[in-house]
Amino acid sequence: MNLLKRRPSQLIITGAAALGFLIAPAVLTAESAVESEAAPCYPGFVPGNPYVPSCNVGPRIPRVRGGPPDQAAVIACRDIPGCLSWYINHPH
């Protein structure tokens, strides 16, 4: 009975504040529908930089010093003297 004797504006303000405290955490923690993530690779080839992972080719083979280069390194080092040799013989 005591609640009914209070002013209606006081009840509305108190109710709105309580509702705000209940809804605020849900609104602040809600994730957006569109999540943008950076790709772990580059869409293309960087001339002269065979170390950049490319999205255009398949998975890279494990690098072994003195072993064969992968397809991304061959394309990135095209027409650059010494680039492929440096990639094959020196660890990065």
TrEMBL record:
- Give the residue range of the signal peptide: 1-29
The superkingdom listed in its UniProt entry is Bacteria
Give the keywords, sorted.
Signal
**Protein name, per record:** Intersectin-EH binding protein Ibp1
Q: What is the lineage of its organism?
A: Bacteria, Bacillati, Actinomycetota, Actinomycetes, Mycobacteriales
